[in-house]
Amino acid sequence: MTRLSPVGQRPALPAWRACAAPLLAALTLGAAAFQPACAADNWPAQPIRWVVPYPAGGGTDVVARTLGQAITPALGQQVVIDNRPGAATIVGADAVAHGKPDGYTLLTADTATLAANPSLYKKLPYNADKDFVHVGMVARFALILVATPNFPARTLKEAIDYVQKNPGKVNFASPGAGSPHHLAMELFMDQTKTRMTHVPYKGAAPAVQDLLAGQVELMFLDLASGQQNVAAGKVRALGVATPRRLTALPAVPTVAEAGVPGFEAYAWQGVVAPAGTPKPVVTRLNAELVKALKSADVQKRFEGIGVEPVSSTPEEFAQYAHAEAERWGKLIKAKGITVD
Q1: Which residues contact 336 (CB under 8 A, 6 or more apart)?
Q2: Structural domain for 212, as ranges
Q3: What does UniProt give as the signal peptide span (predicted)?
Q4: Residue 21 pLDDT
Q5: Which of 8, 40, 130, 157 is deepest in the core (most CB within 10 A)?
Q6: Does residue 25 lie in a domain region?
C-alpha cells in the first residue's frame, strides 16, 4: 500500500526504493561520465572533418590542407577538408557551432569568425563565446598597404598627405565589408585622421583585379596575394602592417616607421571545435598542430604562400581571440560599420 504524501508532493518511495535511488543515480552519473572519457581514450576512431569557411584553392584552404595532411599520420585517421564558403565565414561557422562535440568536427576560425562578425551583425546563428572551444592558433597573414602604379604618392608619408588634402576622393578596395583588409584600412584612417571611400567586393580576386586596372587606388593586401604583384610592379607597396619589416619585402617600411606609430593589423586564423568537445581530445589536437607547425615541411609550405605559422595553447588562442574581438569591436562600433 502506497503511503500518501502532503499535497503538492509526490508519493513517498517505498523504503527499498528510497535506499536504492541514490545508488541508481550515482551509477547513472558514473556511466554518463565514463562514456565521454572512454570516447576520448579511443579518439580518433574515424575520419575527422575540418570545415574551411572559404573556397578551395585560397590561402586559408591551403593552410588547412597542409596541416590536415601533416597531422593525419600521427592521428591514424584521415583529416577531410570540407569547404563551406559564404557570408563572411558564417555558413561554415554555423555548421560547426551546432555540430556534435565528439572531436570529429573542426573549423578554421579567423578574424571575421571570432573578432569582427559579433559586432558587424545584429544577429548571428552562432555565439563566438559559447558555441566553440578553442584548439589553437595556426597562422597569420601579413597585410601590405599597396597603391596602383599611377597613384600620385610614391611613399606612405606622401600618400597620407595626399589623402588628407583630398578627403573622400580616394577609393580603397576590400574583399568585403568587415573583412580584415577593410578593418585595417578603417584603423589606418582613424589613426591618420584621413577619410577615403570604401569600395567593397565579393572576395579578394575581383578587388585585386580592379586595383590592378586602376579602378580603385589603394588596398590592404595579404602577403600571400600581394607579394607577386608587388614583385611584378603591378602595384606599389607603401608599407607593411607588421611590427617589423617582412623578410619577403625587406625594402618596404612598416606602416609604423613610415609615420603611423603603433599601427599593426593581421588576418589571423586558428582551429576551433564545437563547445563540449572532450578536453583530452582538444589537448591532443593542439599537441599535433603545434608539432606540425614546427615541422620544416609545413614551414616551407607556409613560407611559399606568404603565411606565418603561429602556434599557441588553447588558452592562449582564446585570450587572443577575445582581445581581438574587443579591439575590432570598438572600432566597428565607433565607425558605425554594419553589414546587415
Answers
A1: none
A2: 142-240
A3: 1-39
A4: 44
A5: 40
A6: no
The pLDDT mean for the chain works out to: 88
Are residues 62 and 83 located together in one domain of the fold? yes
pLDDT digits (tens, 9 = 90+) for 44-70: 999 999 999 998 988 899 999 999 999
Mapped onto helix, strand or coil, the DSSP state of residue 110 is: strand
Q: Which helix (H) or strand (E) holds 194?
A: none
Q: Give the predicted TM-score (pTM) of the model.
A: 0.84
Helix axes 180-192, 156-165, angle to 10 degrees: 70
Question: Using alpha carbons only, how large is the chain's radius of gyration in Å?
Answer: 25
Give the domain CATH number at 321: 3.40.190.150
Could you tell me the CATH number of the domain that includes residue 231? Answer: 3.40.190.10
Residue with cell 578553442: 134
Which band of pLDDT confidence, cut at 50, 70 and 90, is reported for residue 259? confident
- Under DSSP, is residue 249 helix (H, G, I), strand (E, B) or coil? coil
Instruction: Output the CA angle 160-268-92, nearest 5 degrees.
Output: 120
